[in-house]
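Weekly modeling sync, notes
Attendees: S.R. (lead), two postdocs, one rotation student

Agenda item 3: backlog of single-chain predictions. S.R. asked that every request posted to the team notebook include the full sequence so nobody has to chase files. The rotation student volunteered to paste the first one in as an example of the format we agreed on. Action items at the bottom.

Example entry:
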Amino acid sequence: MTHFHRRSDVLHVEDVALPVLADQVGTPAYVYSAAAIRSRYTALSEALADLDVSIHYAVKANSNQAVIKLLGGMGAGADVVSAGELARALAAGIPADQIVFAGVGKTKDEIRQAIDADIHLFSVESQPELEAISQVAASVGKSARVALRVNPDVDAKTHAKITTGKAENKFGVEIGFAADFFTRAAALPAVRAVGLSMHIGSQLLDLLPYEAAYTRMADLARDLMRKGHALELLDLGGGLGIEYGADKAPTPKDYADVVRRTVGGLGLKLAIEPGRWMVGAAGLLLTRVVYVKEGSAKRFVIVDGAMNDLIRPTLYEAEHRVELVSGASETAQRPADLVGPICETGDYLARNRDLPLVNAGDLIAFLDAGAYGAVMSSTYNSRPLVPEILVDGAKWAVIRERETVAHLIARDTVPEWLV
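Predicted structure, as returned to the notebook:
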């Protein structure tokens, strides 16, 4: 929380008081700390400095142009999973030769866009995809670099909806089929298989699954090289967890020790794809209390933010830390559910949280919301997307404007026979 702190009992992001942002931009709004993002990147890159590792920011965590550009300025490449994310990364100034394209369902049009841009690498998730990449590359007279994404069948011990490395998950090729993949790739005219990749899941707080998966990948890499396949790189994926609540997250040094111990001696270039770890703890959702509803069994604090703005509690049973922005810090705490205005019982941002007495108009912050917050938001109930704000020291800027209802309505077209 060094970049999120209190001065005179008012919560600040770096040198900016949150009530100032609420007054000038309104609520709800996402607020990010540039210094927090920089410090996360620096900590991870320094922990891995003795290894030949490239860092590719997973754009899906937070795809705002300012966030991508900030990380690109630190030296990060990009990990993308759609043509839209590819376009965002390029527009933010990430060099094409630092972009890795993953995902199980790349269309031929997306493949063509990536080949036209001369990206660094495709992470290939199936043999049909390998064939499609070769066909598209051949049609434009180019050759595409690919790495086989292997499913190591390791339980990441994380939420079922964000685990990706077990045999029953849709991602990657089973480890036993890897040799056949490289044999097939060698026979195709317009692809060059240069490495292996993996990603076993998101929000990992236990390093043992990494140890197991990386050990399997190291064994596989050695076996393939013994068989004559010229490997150049090993992409280790992302997924390093952050501390949302009481959970204790591993440090960059802890993680680097696992990398060094398992794959550091292979003689291959390494790549990692952190997303949540870079930006999750660097952001918060700022909301304002609309009503406080006292019931016989429950106290409800109704705020102007909702599940369409931050869906993680509803979708993943995620628990974000909650802080009253100012005042009431010494008053008695009572449990409450913090809920939004959406017409769904599942519309909650926190449940059974001890809170002091709060009143309509009070500001409440939901912390650790920099990843998979704004990027997963929707316009359900015709609620416009909320703004995003980047703070850098005493400076701040709106990096995504608040949408308007008029803008939402203007997206629709009424057919002439209804006019």
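Discussion: group reviewed the output briefly. Confidence is low (pLDDT under 50) at residues 158-167.
Action items: rotation student to repeat for the remaining queue; S.R. to check formatting next week.
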